[in-house]
Amino acid sequence: MVKVAPLKGGALVVDAGGGSDLLRSSSQNTAAEVMARLAVELHDAEGVKETAETAVDFARKAIDCEQAGILLAHSDRVEIGTVTDALVMRLYQLQIETGTGPMVEALTENTVVHVPDVTGEHRWPTWASAARAEGIGSVLHVPMRDRERTIGVLSLFSTKSQAFSDDDEAIAGLLARHVALAVSEAQHDMDLHIALDARAAVGQAMGILMERFDVDEARAFAILRRCSQDHNTRLRDVAEQLIRTRGLPPGQSPGTHRASR
């Protein structure tokens, strides 16, 4: 197991016992070098889920905590990106349902929330009771911020109280920054792929309509758009259904649609 121990002056000593290839060093690595290695690991990950999993695995080793998780925030909802154990999932879900807790505060206030001793925590009694029942002694929630907004929270959990030092908090902040940028990029790539797939599906569906009903591109698109409006369904879904069935939904016919002018 790789253990990264924080030292004064921002240096990190890396013990690469066990032959792990995540981090290697004969003596010392600077924080910048460790973060550079993380950046490589995150770049090699494919997709948002894989990026989040890489991040929490790295975080657990860099800060030497038992469990970790990442919560992702979207414009209209939050999503549990990844967790290392079911207990993290349960504590996340409790806070999502109740709208209160240290993770919620870290996300909504864009601030680091450190609970050094869960047994003495009184700000969120419901959460604290659940955390104690799960055997958690201390937690650290760090907001993940990209260039424009807070996109989630990196959460670290220890069974011991007073487990996280100021150095751990600083390292977690660096990790969160790198992870936020990587996740944001992965989300952008995923959105781009979805958009390209949608465009391809609509184009294929238009081709089917043009061939089957002898209509031009404008008329074919008008038919798809009207079906989308009539059935309150996304244009992409209408196109994919047409590709599967090779026909229009029941009650729809090309003669009932007019191209926009």
Provide the fold topology.
Elements: E1 3-6, E2 11-15, E3 28-30, H1 31-44, H2 47-63, E4 67-73, E5 78-83, H3 86-98, H4 102-109, E6 113-115, H5 125-133, E7 138-145, E8 150-158, H6 166-213, H7 217-230, H8 235-245
Antiparallel strand pairs: 1-2, 2-3, 4-5, 4-8, 6-7, 7-8
Helix pairs in contact: 1-2, 1-6, 2-6, 6-7, 6-8, 7-8
In words, what does this structure look like?
- This protein is α+β, with helices and mostly antiparallel strands and 261 residues long.
- It contains eight helices and eight strands, in the order βββααββααβαββααα.
- The chain has helices spanning 31-44, 47-63, 86-98, 102-109, 125-133, 166-213, 217-230, 235-245, and strands spanning 3-6, 11-15, 28-30, 67-73, 78-83, 113-115, 138-145, 150-158.
- The chain has a five-stranded antiparallel beta sheet. Strands 1-2-3 form a three-stranded antiparallel beta sheet.
- β4 (67-73) and β5 (78-83) form a beta hairpin.
- α6 crosses α8 and α7 (217-230) packs across α8 (235-245).
- The chain is elongated, with a radius of gyration of 25 Å.
- Mean pLDDT is 77; it is low at 1-28 and 256-261.
